[in-house]
Amino acid sequence: MVAKIRVRWPDGGICGACFTTAVNTYGTCAQCSTERLLPGRSPSNEIICRDCAGITTTLSCDRCDREGERIRSGLCASCVVTEDLAAILHPNNPPDLRLHRLIREMASTNRPQSIRTWMRGKGASELLRRLGSRDLALNHDAFDREPPSRAVEHLREMLVHHHILPSRGDIRLARFETWLDNRLDSFAGNPHVLQPLEQFGRWHHLRRLRQEPPAPNMDHATRAAKQEITEAGKFLIWLQSQHGAHVDDLRQEHIDLYWSEGSSTRKHIRNFLQQRGLTGHRRGMIAPAREAQTSPSITGRERLDHLRRVVEADKVTLSTRVAAIILLLYGTPIGTIAGLRVDDFVTSLDGMTISLGRQPAPIPDPLIPLFTDYLANRSHNGTMNKNSPWLFPSTNAGQHISATSLLRRFKIFGIQALGARNATLADLTLELDPTSLASLLGYSAKIMTKHAARAGVTMAIYPALHLPADGPQ
Fold this sequence. Notes:
The protein has helices at residues 16-22, 50-53, 77-89, 97-107, 112-119, 122-133, 140-144, 150-161, 171-185, 191-209, 218-243, 252-260, 270-278, 300-312, 318-330, 334-338, 368-376, 403-409, 417-429, 434-441, 445-454; strands at 26-28, 35-37, 40-41, 47-48, 70-72, 75-76, 345-348, 351-354, 361-362. The chain is mainly alpha-helical. The protein folds into 4 domains: 16-59, no CATH class; 76-161; 174-278, no CATH class; 300-466, hpI Integrase, Chain A (Orthogonal Bundle), CATH 1.10.443.10. It has a 3-stranded antiparallel beta sheet with strand order 7-8-9, with no helix packed on it. A two-stranded antiparallel sheet has the order 1-2. Strand 7 (345-348) and strand 8 (351-354) form a beta hairpin. Helix 9 runs antiparallel to helix 10, helix 10 (191-209) packs antiparallel against helix 11 and helix 19 packs across helix 21. The longest helix has 26 residues, at 218-243.
């Protein structure tokens, strides 16, 4: 909503309380039809430009002549950012084109005020100062040697996103590699733990995470890998300290005793034990899988009620509504929703589609305006994450929102994601056969057949007997 500027006709004095909001509102003037800053309103309450409103206050930058808030010495926020960064980074002493590019990218965001706020932070200001003094080199090795912090990773991701540093692939995978190195280093003095744990961490988990195509939810995949490696390390230490044994001495009674006491997280050593067996170490031991006790779901009516509330919730952030609609329409896993890209949406004369599986899925016509509006005004796309390819950009440059953050957002609607997902898939199996749904939604036909069977679709279980288990689970 555009704040009303109070003017004294004809000289146009501006209310200070409304100034900040109004001087950053651009659009088409209702009177002269030009694209300009719109700080005033006509007597008929139309939004109009400075000249048409008769406002005499200067609203353009003395340096670049762009209309907007003059925040210091007659300069706009973009010019102030350029000036301040040049004073900190010293891009000409010695000359460094990468620093020139960094200054240009920071100053050219749609919201340079957010850059000024970030620069004033303790962590960011110190990192920028050290870049300017050349104490911090512009390479990944130098950033890896820094104490881990959000400021370090945010600046690194910003530099990668704007091609000032080379990309190292998925940032979550890169963080996992660093975590794994540090975890293994902590066992450097205990080779009986280090050797099997390194085999499990590097040759199983790291190799699997690096495979193509990458995991659809790298955040979940790396978190699960960390937990399994951590629990495997705890088990090896327990085996050594409590029984004076190493992994090559492992017996079934050790596994049974370990699982019979302690917390339920001990079950996460199952994958470690299976991998030992697959590589020829102590085969034949039993490592039963943990089975889910329940399959949460909601009713079809509850799902439709959620969908109605989401569509009508005009006061809720549009990104949250769009994500919730995708969940409730297609039963898409949260990690997959978080990793959707803008080019997954295609608009044609026949309507709009979203690519979730091998075939594009149609978006209902009444919801197309909502999706179109969001695609044109994505959140966090006006700062250093500008031109982001992600449907839901993160606050970190070049990244998409995490599945965990997206899950928390659904709480505003009272949506239990897994229950809503199961209900959506069950409802869809009543309308389409499992094979067609698998092609549209990106699931395997076997998984969709299971949902159809749970929904009571006649003969749904039989086609699952010989179907491949591809696609998300």
